[in-house]
Design goal:
Elements: E1 2-9, H1 14-26, H2 28-31, E2 36-44, E3 47-54, E4 57-65, E5 69-76, H3 81-100, H4 103-107
Helix pairs in contact: 1-3
Length: about 110
């Protein structure tokens, strides 16, 4: 398995950041119906575990939410090595977008 780590800084506080990432995770399959399949999630306090299949690869991501940052850790199969950088960039980008978007823009 290939390990992928990233951090996204924010200024929302832990509670708001957890709420936004929970929303992102719950809506993954709806937002990306062509890419995300077999979605499984587990939420506990400030930690979100998400498993899904993307382009035929099983992907696991954990987000630990702190007052000022989200620590992302993911694993992808060795066979997805060529896509690992793109997966990191995409997931980190969507997390950052969710954390930095205004509530009105997210609702639209």
């Amino acid at each position: 398995m290939i390990e992928i780590d990233s951090n996204v800084q924010h200024s929302l506080g832990q509670e708001v950041a957890v709420e936004r990432l929970h929303n992102l995770a719950v809506n993954l399959a709806q937002r990306f119906p062509q890419q995300v399949h077999q979605l499984k999630m587990h939420f506990k306090n400030h930690r979100i575990d998400v498993d899904f299949a993307a382009y035929g690869y099983v992907v696991h991501w954990t987000a630990e939410v702190f007052d000022d940052q989200v620590s992302l850790h993911g694993t992808v199969p060795d066979s997805a090595k060529v896509f690992a950088g793109k997966m990191k960039q995409t997931i980190t980008g969507h997390v950052a977008q969710e954390l930095f978007s205004s509530p009105l823009r997210r609702a639209a």
